[in-house]
C-alpha cells in the first residue's frame, strides 16, 4: 500500500516539475492535437510552428480550434501542442491536450493563462489536473496556428496511438461562473511562494483564485512541494475515495 502511494506521489511530482516527454508507448500530444484541431502537421511539436509557415495562418491571439505551439524548454525537449477549446478573455483560455500532467493523459477544457509581460501569449501557465491547481512552471510558446476551419473534432482513443487515460472533462461553463478574482489575503503568501489552495472538493470544478499579475509575480520564485507533502495528499485522496 505504501509503495503504491509513493509511486503515485512520484507521478504527481513529475507532473508538476517535468514536461511532456514520456515514453512512445503512451499517447503523445502531437497526434491528439492533429486529430482534434484538424491541423495536418506531423513531426515533433517543437517543429510545428516552422512547418505551419506558408501552410496555415499564425498569430498571437487565441481562437477556438487554434493550436498553441510550445517552445522546447527545460525537460520539455520536444515542445508541446494544445488545442484551444474556448476563449474566456484576453488572458484565459480553455485547452484540450494530451501527455501533459501524466503519461498519456487526455485533459479536456482545462485552463491556460497568459502570464507574459506584453499579453501576447508568449508565456503561459497550464492547469495540472492531478493536483487541481495551476502548474508552477512558466512555459514559453511560439504562438497560435489557425486551421482553415475552426472546428473541434472528437477524439476516440486508439491503441495504435499509444496507451491513454482520460481525466474527467471539465464543465467549461463553470470557468465563466467562477471567474478569477484577486485574493488579497492570499497575495501576501504568494509573495513568498506559490500558495497551496485547499484540496478541491470531489465533484467540484477547480478554478483560479488569483489574477495574472499575482501569478506573474509568483512565478519569480515558485515553491517546490516536498515529497512528504505530496504523499500526504495521496493518502488524503485515498481516504476520500
TrEMBL record:
InterPro entries in alphabetical order: CHAP_dom, Papain-like_cys_pep_sf
Transmembrane intervals: none
Keywords: Signal
Signal peptide: 1-23
Domain Peptidase C51: 4-125
Claim: Repressor is one of the keywords in the record: no
Keyword Signal recorded: yes
Gene3D superfamilies in alphabetical order: endopeptidase domain like (from Nostoc punctiforme)
Name assigned to this protein: CHAP domain-containing protein
Organism: Sphingobium naphthae
Amino acid at each position: 500500500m505504501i509503495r503504491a502511494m509513493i509511486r503515485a506521489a512520484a507521478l504527481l511530482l513529475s507532473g508538476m516539475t517535468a514536461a511532456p516527454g514520456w515514453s512512445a508507448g503512451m499517447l503523445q500530444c502531437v497526434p491528439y492535437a492533429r486529430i482534434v484541431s484538424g491541423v495536418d502537421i506531423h513531426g515533433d511539436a517543437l517543429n510545428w510552428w516552422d512547418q505551419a509557415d506558408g501552410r496555415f495562418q499564425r498569430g498571437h491571439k487565441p481562437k477556438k480550434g487554434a493550436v498553441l505551439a510550445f517552445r522546447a524548454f527545460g525537460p520539455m525537449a520536444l515542445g508541446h501542442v494544445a488545442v484551444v477549446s474556448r476563449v474566456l478573455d484576453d488572458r484565459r483560455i480553455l485547452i484540450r491536450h494530451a501527455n501533459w500532467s501524466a503519461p498519456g493523459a487526455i485533459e479536456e477544457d482545462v485552463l491556460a493563462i497568459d502570464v507574459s509581460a506584453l499579453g501576447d501569449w508568449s508565456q503561459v501557465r497550464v492547469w495540472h489536473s492531478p493536483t487541481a491547481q495551476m502548474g508552477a512552471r512558466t512555459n514559453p510558446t511560439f504562438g497560435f496556428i489557425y486551421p482553415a476551419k475552426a472546428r473541434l473534432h472528437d477524439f476516440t482513443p486508439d491503441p495504435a496511438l499509444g496507451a491513454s487515460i482520460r481525466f474527467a472533462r471539465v464543465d467549461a461553463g463553470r470557468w465563466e461562473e467562477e471567474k478569477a478574482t484577486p485574493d488579497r489575503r492570499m497575495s501576501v503568501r504568494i509573495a513568498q511562494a506559490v500558495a497551496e489552495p485547499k484540496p478541491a472538493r470531489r465533484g467540484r470544478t477547480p478554478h483560479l483564485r488569483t489574477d495574472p499579475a499575482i501569478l506573474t509575480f509568483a512565478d519569480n520564485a515558485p515553491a517546490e512541494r516536498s515529497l512528504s507533502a505530496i504523499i500526504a495528499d495521496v493518502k488524503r485522496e485515498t481516504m476520500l475515495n
